From TrEMBL:
<keyword id="KW-1133">Transmembrane helix</keyword>
<keyword id="KW-0812">Transmembrane</keyword>
<feature type="transmembrane region" description="Helical">
    <location>
        <begin position="12"/>
        <end position="34"/>
    </location>
</feature>
<feature type="domain" description="PASTA">
    <location>
        <begin position="41"/>
        <end position="108"/>
    </location>
</feature>
<keyword id="KW-0472">Membrane</keyword>
<dbReference type="Pfam" id="PF03793">
    <property type="entry name" value="PASTA"/>
</dbReference>
<protein>
    <submittedName>
        <fullName>PASTA domain-containing protein</fullName>
    </submittedName>
</protein>
<feature type="domain" description="PASTA">
    <location>
        <begin position="110"/>
        <end position="180"/>
    </location>
</feature>
<dbReference type="InterPro" id="IPR005543">
    <property type="entry name" value="PASTA_dom"/>
</dbReference>
Length: 201
């Protein structure tokens, strides 16, 4: 049988149809296998692991088929227990695939210390901006007689006088002693004119 006759014969078309069916079935089987191996359509709700110790979070995520990856330790946040997770990505409730890594940040064990700069003779506004930048908080203000109004004369913490260079914990409360802008004359100064008058006499 010549090639031309074979290509136009019914046997050729039957074989062609069978071959196409086999190819289609094979491709369908591959797609199904890939769907199964990649958990296509199956998603996991990310649990809330904030305020958990890292070891506890690892166990919980492992049960869900997820992994935890520590990114960094952040400055201490008092609303979270020490050494617990303060941030996670993806966030709780997000839908992810099996095996996805959950990136977390850990709370520090406590407040770090800062060095107190020289704030004496600074205006209260300047001093307040400086301590906020350092992570400190403004406390009580006490005014005493002094010609320099709203200028820092002393700094205290829990009744203890502080000086430049002292180490204090972040989030500490700092109290200020400020000038009230008034100048009081002492009894000595008040008596000078009378003394001068006596000497003249």
């Amino acid at each position: 049988m010549s090639l031309k006759r074979f290509l136009t014969s019914s046997a050729f078309f039957k074989n062609l149809v069978v071959a196409l069916v086999i190819v289609i079935v094979f491709l369908f089987a591959i797609v199904k296998f890939l769907d199964f191996s990649t958990n296509h359509g199956e998603e996991i709700n990310v649990p809330d692991i904030t305020k958990m110790k890292l070891e506890v979070a690892e166990e919980k995520l492992d049960e869900e088929g997820l992994e935890v990856f520590l990114l960094d330790t952040v400055d201490f946040k008092p609303e979270f227990p020490p050494y617990t997770i303060v941030e996670q990505d993806p966030r709780p409730g997000s839908k992810v695939k099996d095996g996805r890594k959950i990136y977390v940040k850990l709370n520090a064990g406590g407040f770090s210390t800062v060095t107190l700069p020289d704030l004496i003779n600074k205006t209260f506004r300047q001093a307040a901006n400086t301590i906020r930048t350092l992570g400190l908080q403004e406390g009580k203000l006490k005014y005493v007689p002094n010609i320099a109004k709203d200028v820092v004369l002393e700094i205290h913490q829990n009744g203890k006088k502080l000086k430049a260079g002292d180490k204090i914990l972040k989030n500490s409360t700092i109290d200020f002693v400020l000038g009230d802008g008034k100048e009081l004359f002492s009894d000595e100064n008040d008596s000078i004119p009378s003394q001068e008058q006596d000497s003249i006499e």
